[in-house]
TrEMBL record:
HAMAP family: TolQ (MF_02202). This is Tol-Pal system protein TolQ. It is found in: Cell inner membrane; Cell membrane. Signal peptide: none annotated.
């Protein structure tokens, strides 16, 4: 071990990302590992949500095209009842199931049936909203907390660097720079995790709001159709 290394400082020129990580204090290393893992998990969520929301929009478009084409509602219900594969189909199936149950049991009070169908659709929208928003909280948490975690690693690293500089009794930039770079690397990783997480959270929150608005609009229109049918039969 060289005299410089015995103080905790490292030889000039060792500034690659791998060397910065390997030279870091154990606390800074744990911070870096945590931030890298959080960043990887964020990207996995971003990729999964991108494809999931795109698929949800395509399936809703396809369902609305069939629904408004004059297709028989009973036939559409039989097709989707066993396996509604998207939020709007689940909403339609839930309302139709309540409609059919009420007919089978003879519970055809106009107000009672309308109220039950609205409640069933509200519950379904709430359930689908929860499903669509799953894992977005992780993006929000990483987006807000990662810079501070990285800053903690930097502060800790700089404290160690100054302690080592004092022990070496040298203020040469070549001696000081590796310790400072090692500490700042933690902040860079924090920002690397936080920036895509914030952008992804804002984008996906907006996507979820639009999908939920489509579900609420469809629920209002479908409720009006069922209400008209009840009026015609009464």
């Amino acid at each position: 071990m060289t005299p410089l290394e015995s103080t905790g400082l490292h030889a000039p020129g060792e500034l690659s990302m791998l060397s910065l990580f390997l030279q870091a204090d154990i606390v800074v290393k744990l911070v870096m590992i945590g931030l890298v893992m959080a960043s990887i998990w964020c990207w996995a969520i971003i990729i999964e949500k991108t494809f999931a929301y795109r698929r949800a929009r395509a399936r809703m478009d396809q369902f609305e095209k069939v629904f408004w084409s004059g297709h028989s509602l009973d036939e559409l219900y039989r097709t989707l009842a066993t396996r509604p594969n998207h939020a709007m189909a689940a909403l339609f199936v839930a309302a139709m199931r309540e409609w059919k149950r009420s007919h089978e049991t003879g519970a055809l009070s106009l107000l009672g049936l309308q109220s039950r169908i609205e409640k069933v659709m509200d519950v379904t929208i709430s359930r689908e909203s929860t499903r669509l928003e799953s894992r977005l909280l992780f993006l929000a948490t990483v987006g807000s907390a990662a810079p501070f975690i990285g800053l903690f690693g930097t502060v800790w690293g700089i404290m160690n660097a100054f302690t080592s500089i004092a022990a070496s009794e040298s203020t040469s930039l070549a001696v000081v720079a590796p310790g400072i770079a090692e500490a700042l690397f933690a902040t860079a990783l924090g920002l690397l995790a936080a920036i895509p997480a914030v952008i992804g959270y804002n984008k996906f929150s907006n996507d979820v709001s639009k999908l939920i608005a489509r579900l609420e609009g469809f629920a209002d229109e479908f409720g009006a159709i069922l209400s008209r049918q009840l009026d015609e039969r009464s």
